[in-house]
Amino acid sequence: MLLGGMLGGQSAAQATTFGWVYISFPTWLGNCESGGKVTGIVAATDYWSTNWDWGDDLVYGKVALGQRNHVNATVYCNKGPGYYRYVFRDDVVPTRNNQTLWVGAAGWTRN
């Protein structure tokens, strides 16, 4: 009976579907609360990481779809002649490949 249960089911690891999503750090969600705009990101999820991404507020990361994923990032804000940075950590639940997730101090949302 145990063998039948093992053959008929999948483990959680086998059932995981992975995808790639856009993770955006927009100012309207509380990023760069001291002013300026996001122009650099060093980020990681549970399944992916990037060293540096400069020029916008967006990265493209690998995630487990339909499951909680940890997002950790150092976000660089351009303000005047210099930059300042802060650390972002939150859990997100993407539901489909190529989805956009907007994350920030005020929470997160998805399209």
Mean pLDDT equals 88
CATH-derived topology: Immunoglobulin-like
The strand count comes to 9
Please identify the structural class as seen in this structure: mainly beta
User: Would you identify the regions where 5 or more consecutive residues have pLDDT less than 50?
Assistant: 1-10
| CA-based gyration radius | 17 Å
Features:
single chain, 111 residues, mainly beta, Immunoglobulin-like, 5-stranded antiparallel beta sheet, 4-stranded mixed beta sheet, 10% helix, elongated, disordered N terminus
Textual characterization of the structure:
With 111 residues, this protein is mainly beta. It has a single domain, classed as Sandwich (Immunoglobulin-like), CATH 2.60.40. 10% of the residues lie in helices and 52% in strands. Strands 2, 3, 4, 6 and 7 form a 5-stranded antiparallel β-sheet that branches. Strand 2 and strand 3 form a beta hairpin. The termini are far apart. Residues 1-10 have low confidence and may be disordered.
Could you provide a short overview of the structure?
The protein is mostly beta strands and 111 residues long. The chain contains two helices and nine strands; from the N terminus they run H-H-E-E-E-E-E-E-E-E-E.
SSE layout and pairing:
Blueprint: H1 2-8, H2 12-15, E1 18-24, E2 37-45, E3 48-49, E4 53-54, E5 58-64, E6 69-79, E7 82-92, E8 100-104, E9 107-110
Parallel strand pairs: 1-8
Antiparallel strand pairs: 1-5, 2-3, 2-4, 2-6, 6-7, 8-9
